[in-house]
Amino acid sequence: MAKNKLINTEQLQQRAFLVGANVSTREDLLSQDDSMQELELLAQTAGIEVVGHVTQNLTIPNPKTYIGSGKVDEIKLLVEEFDADLVIFDIELSPRHQRELEKALGDTLQVIDRTALILDIFAQHAHTSEGVLQVELAQYEYRLPRLTRAWTHLARQAGGGGGRTGSVGGVGLRGPGETQLEVDRRTISARIELLKEELEKVRAHRSRYRKQRKRTHIPVISLVGYTNAGKSTLLNKLSDAELFVADKLFATLDPTTRRVSLPGGQKVLFTDTVGFIQKLPTELIAAFRATLEEISAADLLLHVVDITHVNASAQAKSVQETLVEIGAGDIPIITALNKIDGLKDPQGAIAALEDFPNTFPISALTGQGLGALLSGIEEFLYETFIDIDVQIPYDQGQLLSLFYEKGQVKQVVNQEFGTRIIGLIPRRFISRYEPYFSSSLKNSAIDEDDFELE
């Protein structure tokens, strides 16, 4: 992956100057100061030394350089003063903004944005073949629209057949009159298509594995949360596993599944997934589709929140927004408020997040509160059935099958536009049927003693 780095890592350690831009018309979950602190942590995670920073408030971005021309001149002087060789913007720069900033700040200075920095961190932390493929795809899709002559060189006309270009991927031939820039674009495009094909195979394999897993009728719980919230630590504690844990951002990327016994003896599968962050690059979300589908296929999400973090509420909201973005916004959630062992006033901090669903204060490190958390998961998954009346369209046959498999059917009527079915369904599946309610959902839950559970 070294050849695909978006940041120059030939030196022992780069010196970065950070730039933040607060646009008044844009609403961010984190304040500008907090976002800049997070950007500094990201830079440190990537092995970069931060030597200074500056911010600017804008009404609208400058169409040429995003920030104002006066601020560009100021940054140029500060970069020289601090002897920085890299400028990192706490926004996603358009290809034009990046080109114009590099021209204005000097050809020897590298300008990148938050997205490129996160992609570089993922490249450093990807270890499995799947992870490497996903990160490589995200990097190339980010890089392709940003290819300029500043990145490559104009090739001489290759009279006749030409030769192999030697650019990324080692594929593609240079035709007569074709510039190196055009060769690079074509080569990277071909590499992107190849990576997509490989990842589609991975996606198909995961899909088959999930189908086999569903046949066991063992519920699946996906651990989600902001990066460094303690998900891997929690999975280690629950399953006596030995997953890699580190106090840094994006320490683990690859999904890991472990079997855990609930207090009543039932078995469930816990799956740890990649952590989220505000402004998560869209390229990563697309490239990690196969991995993120592990979340959207879960029966229940366990949202792990670092309750000790000053921006715990904003981080939790960022996770919720990302879940909606990847199509997992309607899956039931239990919230684990982690690291309460580090709080002087646990109740005060917990009260600040009282709007989040089904909260359980825990310490993944010491094990405090894990018994109550597992009991809460058990109650949610197994003990409560809901009485519903739904009309399922004929093109939603999987919902009808799920009802027969997991629920208790009382009455079925085939109608013109779908099948009306009345009965009981485990509460964990209720969100999947909400769009098809044919009458108001009854408030009362049906006790499991009245019916034989699946």
Automatic annotation (TrEMBL):
Positions with a binding annotation for GTP: 225-232, 250-254, 272-275, 338-341, 363-365
Coiled coil: 185-215
Chain positions recorded as Mg(2+) binding sites: 232, 252
Ranges for domain Hflx-type G: 219-385
Keyword GTP-binding: yes
GO MF terms, alphabetically ordered: GTP binding; GTPase activity; metal ion binding; ribosome binding
Compartmental location: Cytoplasm
NCBIfam families tied to this protein: GTP_HflX
Protein name per the record: GTPase HflX
Highest classification ranks of the organism: Bacteria, Bacillati, Chloroflexota, Anaerolineae, Anaerolineales
